[in-house]
């Protein structure tokens, strides 16, 4: 009796495999379904990972309350901004008035060269050339 039941189970198993064989040869099921699963699964996983990134940014953007109080106390005034702007304008004016026509291109030492001996050699070359 047991042998008959095992044979029947084996036959039904073989019939089921024979029915699935044409599906295994179907290119849509073989390549298309895994591709669609990859695309849809990737979309959901990317959504989760980006949410983690935004949550981490929220945590990093929170400021310590003591530091926030110090920032509120040290507000930047309009007068201090004008002072900074004035300093910037004077330095720009100095740069505009300077003459860059008589500069010399001086080669620096290479990493494998001794910098002191190279500088001495450059000094000798500069002093020996008539300008």
Automatic annotation (TrEMBL):
<dbReference type="GO" id="GO:0005743">
    <property type="term" value="C:mitochondrial inner membrane"/>
</dbReference>
<dbReference type="InterPro" id="IPR020164">
    <property type="entry name" value="Cyt_c_Oxase_assmbl_COX16"/>
</dbReference>
<dbReference type="GO" id="GO:0033617">
    <property type="term" value="P:mitochondrial respiratory chain complex IV assembly"/>
</dbReference>
<feature type="compositionally biased region" description="Polar residues">
    <location>
        <begin position="118"/>
        <end position="131"/>
    </location>
</feature>
<comment type="similarity">
    <text>Belongs to the COX16 family.</text>
</comment>
<protein>
    <recommendedName>
        <fullName>Cytochrome c oxidase assembly protein COX16 homolog, mitochondrial</fullName>
    </recommendedName>
</protein>
<keyword id="KW-0496">Mitochondrion</keyword>
<keyword id="KW-0812">Transmembrane</keyword>
<keyword id="KW-0999">Mitochondrion inner membrane</keyword>
<dbReference type="Pfam" id="PF14138">
    <property type="entry name" value="COX16"/>
</dbReference>
<feature type="region of interest" description="Disordered">
    <location>
        <begin position="106"/>
        <end position="131"/>
    </location>
</feature>
<keyword id="KW-1133">Transmembrane helix</keyword>
<keyword id="KW-0472">Membrane</keyword>
<feature type="compositionally biased region" description="Basic and acidic residues">
    <location>
        <begin position="106"/>
        <end position="117"/>
    </location>
</feature>
């Amino acid at each position: 009796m047991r042998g008959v039941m095992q044979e029947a189970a084996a036959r039904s198993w073989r019939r089921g495999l024979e029915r699935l064989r044409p599906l295994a040869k179907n290119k849509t099921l073989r390549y298309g379904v895994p591709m669609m699963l990859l695309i849809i699964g990737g979309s959901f996983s990317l959504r989760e990972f980006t949410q983690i990134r935004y949550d981490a940014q929220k945590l990093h953007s929170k400021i310590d309350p003591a530091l926030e109080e110090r920032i509120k106390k040290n507000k930047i005034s309009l007068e201090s901004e004008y002072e900074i702007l004035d300093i910037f304008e004077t330095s720009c004016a100095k740069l505009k008035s300077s003459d860059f026509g008589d500069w010399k291109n001086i080669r620096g030492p290479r990493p494998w060269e001794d910098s002191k001996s190279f500088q001495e050699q450059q000094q000798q070359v500069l002093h020996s050339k008539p300008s």
